Amino acid sequence: MGAKARPGELRARIAQILVASPGAQFTVTELARRLGHSGGAVGNACETLVCRGEAERSGSKPRMYRSTSATATAAQHAVPLPPAPSCTPLVPRPAAPQAPAAPPPTGRPGPVTRPNGQQYHPRALAQLPDVEALRRLREAQVAVLLYGPPGTGKTSLIEAAFPDLITVAGDGDTTVGDLIGEYTQDTNGGYEFVYGPLVTAMQEGRALLLDDATLISPKVLAALYPAMDGRRQIQVKAHKGEAISAADGFYVIAGHNPGVHGAVLTEALASRFSVQVQVGSDYDLAASLKINRTAVRIARHLAVSQQAGEVGWAPQLRELIAFQKIADVLGTEAAFANLVGVAPLEDRDTVAEIVTKAIGRPVTALTLGRQL
Asked: Whole-prediction pTM value?
């Protein structure tokens, strides 16, 4: 494994390879072998180059990259590359005939495709697209905690930023074994130790998301902390006391829903995440996605009321996207009725009153009618 690159250096070295073979395509594995870095670190750096317009993703299975008109600029700060090992020469793949690469974006960044194929629309964070900001923080090994109500896009942002992501869905029943691994019975009736997501992310240099991290017991989270500090190592006591060291690129990011029952942000957990970012719904994005304007206006109204302590719930982007899908299938009237119905019981009357006033006719929760 090569020496750890300074922030931005790995991107520049990748750009140097891409620009040396205009039009050629390279897989993450090929680039990682040439550079002596983990696939996770190289894949993350490639995605950052794409986000900045300094490279282009030309394939997805496997992920492949090639240069754009801006790649040469990104390569200018690269240190000289060592010669490729003679036993594993790097052979560029021929480029498929395609239209010339578009120039790097100068205005609003375009959407980023998540692993599930859905598109994420970047938002501003510290005067950068949020996706790029998270990637820079990963390069600098600065852990990030995203917090806000469910449905505001925390997980979507993280998936868009880190294509190599491994996710742990936290809850009160999450155990140390769920993170590190445990013995599992094999087909022969014996037992074998199967590594958990934390060990996998450490060994492969990948990003690890602790979704709803504050629902996980502090005693369980304590098993993670040695991997996040200067040691970057854990001991798997259940598996012969094996020591696991983190490969370059390993990174931990977490999500926290403050309003969820049982979610507790302990001092020990908060201190591990130097950057904490509040995430709320982007109602401007909801409007640009052509979601019903009245529904968006109602959501904004409820969000303001929620901040004032007058109501405990407001529709987030997730609910608004669902609203439009329901409206397209069952009609707008049914979508408004469902919006009232998904509100928590203690807020339902208030939400029904606001919706009724907004659309000019009484609205109640969506219910079954008489038998047809």
From this structure: 0.68
Per DSSP, the chain holds a count of helices (H) and strands (E) of 16, 16
26-27 and 63-66 strand pairing: antiparallel
**DSSP-derived secondary structure letter, 25:** B
Rounded (10°) angle between helices 317-330 and 332-342 = 140
C-alpha–C-alpha distance, residues 203 and 199, integer Å? 6
339 with 319: CB under 8 angstroms? yes
Is residue 58 within 8 A of residue 24, CB to CB? The reply is no
Q: Kindly report, residue by residue over 291-339, the tens digit of the pLDDT.
A: 999 999 999 999 999 888 889 899 999 999 999 999 999 999 999 999 9
Phi and psi based region of residue 241 (left: phi greater than 0; alpha: psi -120 to 50; beta: remaining)? left
Residues in the chain: 372
Take residue 369 and report the two structure tokens written for it: 């009618």
- State which H helix or E strand residue 198 sits in: helix 197-204
Q: Cα separation of 57 and 288, whole Å?
A: 26
Q: What are the pLDDT digits (tens) for 17-63? A: 998 988 889 988 888 888 877 776 777 778 778 877 888 888 766 77
Residue that the structure tokens 């609910």 belong to: 319
Q: Which residue in 72, 96, 89, 97 sits closest to 17, CA to CA?
A: 72
Residue with tokens 């040691």: 231
